[in-house]
Amino acid sequence: MTRILPLIALPLVLAGCAASGTPQAPGEKPAPAAAYMAVGTEPGWTLEITPERLSYAGDYGETKIAVPNPGATSAANGQTYATGRLSVAIEHRACSDGMSDRRYADTVRVTADGKTVQGCGGAILPPDTLAGSNWTFVSIGGAPVAPDRPTSLAFDGTRLSGSAGCNRFSGGYTADGRALTAGPLMATKMACPGAGMDQERAFFSLMATPVSIGFPSDGTMEITGTNGQTAVLRRAI
């Protein structure tokens, strides 16, 4: 039998973070710290720029070009790289990948063997607002979430809802600048097998005190409590 239990109202601090670093396409491993990454769609392509080389994979991976890095040339609001087969123009202007609501710091144009494509690169930008954003948990308290327990955290205009691996919770929230107050939250009370219950307890323990929220450049959201415990979430596409 499912019972509804109230959770205490939880004040949250929304801490804005400067975006830096490199993006990654969903499912890909993070690039090395020294690499600049860009991605595009229709057709899918990726570009990696390291101090040593430019590596391009176009047409969903069918076209591959790797050339020595010629060095960047400053351009209006950005930089360019030019070689015989591969040219790259990076403009520091916010960009959407066209397939999701994910936004990047740069607009990138690549010409490979005479064919030009446009996409996005640089840091993944934080959302303009939490309203309308959806997330899944990556880890809670430093432990990866159980893969067999679906998780979610969704914000609409006035309410948030989700699951940390077992019970569903929901409640109202208000945001004012960097401060966000959630609750009172309501949660079902069901017992769950395996690690789902443990990770849910860890999340509710984390949220029992004020937290700060940051947005690293890899597209994740970090919720950190006053005791240093952190939950990491990834934007749902």
UniProtKB/TrEMBL annotation:
Tagged with keyword Chloroplast: no
What does the UniProt keyword field contain?
Answer: Signal
- Coiled-coil annotation reads none
* Signal peptide (UniProt feature, chain positions): 1-25
Residue span(s) of domain DUF306: 128-231
Instruction: Show the Pfam families listed in the entry.
Output: META
What PROSITE patterns does the database record attribute to this sequence? PROKAR_LIPOPROTEIN
Q: InterPro entries per the record?
A: DUF306_Meta_HslJ, HslJ-like_sf, Hsp_HslJ-like
Q: What is this protein called?
A: META domain-containing protein
Q: Which source organism does the UniProt entry give?
A: Sphingopyxis lindanitolerans
